[in-house]
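Thread: 2-(butylsulfanyl)adenosine complex, take 2
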Amino acid sequence: MSKRRHEELKQLIRRHDHAYHVLDAPEISDYDYDQLYAELIQLEKDQPELDTSDSPTQRVGSKPLDAFVKVQHRLPMLSLQNSYSPEDLLEFDARVKKFLRREDNVEYFCEPKFDGLAIELVYERGIFVRALTRGDGIVGEDVTSNIRTIRSIPLRLHAKKPPALLEVRGEVLMFKKDFAELNEQQQENGQATFANPRNAAAGTIRQLDSRIAAGRPLRFFAYALGAAEGASFQTQEEIGRRFQEYGFPVASGHSLLARSPEEVVDFYHRIDQERHQLPFDIDGIVVKVNSLSLQEDLGLVARSPRWATAAKFKPEQAQTVVEQIQVQVGRTGALTPVAIMTPVRVGGVTVTHATLHNQEEIQRKDVRVGDTVVIQRAGDVIPEIVSVIAGKRPEDSKPFEMPAHCPACGSPVRLLEGEVVTRCVNPLCIAVLKESLKHFAGRRAMNLEKIGDRLIETLVDEKQLTRYSDFYRLRREDLLSLDRQGEKSVDNILKSAESSKKTTLGRFVFALGIRFVGETTAKHLADHFLTIDRLREASEEELLEVPEIGPKVAKAIREWFDNPVLRREIDEMIELGVEIAAPKRSTDGALSGKSFVITGTLPVKRDEARDFIEKHGGKILSGVSSKLNYLVAGDDPGSKLDKAESLGVAVISWDDLQKMV
Ligand code: IVH
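Output below.
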């Protein structure tokens, strides 16, 4: 009986993982999912004899390895010849035709060139058994335990009669927004930040401790076939389609079956235009002869196939001069050096600042004031210094050194063991206080709308703000005494303090700025404990029951709530009128059970629109698929609208949405 339930649970969770992580179209609430998952864990704990080899519980990572084992690929993993221009694509087409001795057009399957890490997944009788890196193309490293943690990778193929052997090749990468969040988290934890999503993905796969990989937001896209037994394929397009059926994410919305070289060139230009809108980094396109039998005829030259090529996009780089290196102090006391540069345009925006991450990073690149540097936009958003032009360095320049004292409060700074981030550890540091208050007041925290960063700095300098609860003690006459604050703006400040008092537990917990507790963790805590009273009394063991909370985070939360000064802060805020609502179960809103994607410019801010949908129980998805219920389209909606229309997804306006609730 329990064996049957075990199979059933594994299958259910597999289905929901696929719906959530691959299709981006969840079918049940997070809460219901967690219930299923908890039942599965309990069952496996009670009955250790159950087969867990393909169980979703195996995705959490396991004991660290001593080293990666080297394993030979059944078929070599080839590399591609790179070119940098669309003309090269025409030459490629000419070479293909010449070799095949034909004049009529050849079909090409075109895809983005993912900028991540190539991986081969091996499935035996439908079960995921191994993952290898490319290595030198002949021998790769066995990174199975890390890859198993990636939830968009099926642990069992979706197929009634799976092939005896199937090797799926593809790219492991990180989405740009996940990368930005990870870096923020790394910074908070005192760990090295990554220069770009590619490095973050590669660094994660190289970890010997798969529990680290389990906590990182890796993704996978399948694009090529390795060895196969018991399955055959005719075209590259079919490979993509069948991979999708087996449960893998593929770049389906961004691929093209081109019927002429001109269509290939058009595809190159189109993807070059669209690439900034993609959720992940790409660095070009890959063009493959569609027919596998023609691929065989074409064969190889050296280590590259004659039947495929890559055309890269020109990197968006520019040169400028570092005028200054400023050291900023963050909410956790972390000191971050930032290069202030002569403004320069890269990839359509003007760039003046680039983070230099930490001392180690600066030393590695040896960036100095006065240097001429090459910059580019990493992850297409965050500016990054790629290199220093040695020949243009002023003669009298000196290497940068991290200050020994906090630039904000003057107390000595420390480099804690095992961390690369230098910190000001003075809990009363004025910069730490200012940053904590800004975080508290932030839009996604307590949303003290009319109290911006600049005003917070002034209020701290004027001693009107010394702690969180002071936001709710601000007095009209004190505010009026500030420079440049008239009746009207003072009214607005007081009004926004008043309306911020009505909040939710998730926002409140996030606002507190507890180490390691970001927005998602705060939401999980709120869903689990429902009231601040229950949360603040929770033991470390109880905290560990909450999704995504490990020992380190549980300890940090417990320590925070054990601090008598901070406990009093909470009581005082409540006395001052802060009302903390329990999280709504997503089943009681007017939009509950419905999924939404937003595109184009709405009459309100994006965040506001998202909050509105979530508040009424709707779920926000990032991409359009046939499972999506509604596309909310504003002005200049772009390609999502076309896709929604072609899939028959309902398209509504902001007004329509308002009417629905
Ligand atoms: S197909 C013969 N498709 O490009 C190899 N490769 O230089 C056929 N890559 O290491 C590979 N996106 O990491 C293919 N859509 C895509 C790709 C892709 C990125 C990378 C892959 C490989 C490298 C080849």
